[in-house]
Amino acid sequence: MLTALFVMAAIAIVLGAVLGFSAMRFRVEGNPLVDKIDAVLPQTQCGQCGYPGCKPYATAIAGGEADINQCPPGGEEGIHKLAELLGVEFKPFGEGVQPKPKSVAFIDENICIGCTLCLQACPVDAIAGAAKQMHTIIAAECTGCELCVPPCPVDCIDMIEIEEDVNNWKWRYPVYVINPAQ
Amino acid sequence: MVNYLLILLGTVFVNNIVMVKILGLCPFMGVSKKLEAAVGMGAATTFVLTLASGASYLISHYLLGPDLAYLTTLSFIVVIAAIVQFTEMVIHKTSPDLYQVLGIYLPLITTNCAVLGIPLLNVQAKHNFMESLFFGLGGALGFTLVLVLFAGIRERLEGADVPGIFRGTAIAMVTAGLMSLAFMGFSGLIR
Q: What angle do CA A53, A56, A59 make, to 5 degrees?
């Protein structure tokens, strides 16, 4: 009985030591901060921050190259979350970067010539179509990033604001106004 | 030398761990949807299984002996879990892509019954150290072989015109059964 206990304990100690050593030897370097920032960003991959996607923007924030107020799809709320995560002051959006109302792209199919330029621009593959065929937007996939608007040679893409209805209505975050006692 | 070659051939073809002994079916069905993942899984399992065979021989022969034989299963499980953990670290470090592809099936090698089954069969057959190693290597190679073959077949099945009720796992099960029948053709080749 006692020998059995000793044998199992010995096995456990030796294996634990080996695993502990190899955990140090084979440690994977990664910046956990980048992943945390990336989780806060809205993942629209729109590039409105000036970086090619959300992950590069997160890397830039973590490296101190970018400011936290460059993500319009995230809105003010996103900035608040980033400020809290990084322990810095809240910063309002700068000139030119303003959050827009949530919208989806719409292709006027009478004008579309089927050039596929907007397909290549779309970061989330929300446009269905092929060469010389007219294209259409899969509204459920569209993140409203507007990247498809500039490439269109015939200006057939419009951004349509999403009206609030029973399907997409959400509770608003409560807003408390704190009045410090005079 | 001939002895080892016979063990290797025997475990790969004649007594194939998946097709004849019907062990390790979970990764066989789970990771066989894509060829690359199957190759990676086969390589990881080969590494784990060979190490586990050697380590378990040393433990059962030198540490446990006949007195503590009742600890065999328990200690093998502990050793296998540790080896799988070690493999996971190595793969995470050396090939992050493979780590992503294998996903949950990598830690699940721990519960792959083939990995526990082969060391136990080793003890039962009273193999010596080198025989145990070759038995483990052969079993793992056999596992890899059928996994890769099956993944290839399943990739073709994706494009095949399969009747609605058979689509997906059902046709995969039928295929696995047919493969098992085919492997019966090797029986009697060695021993």
A: 150
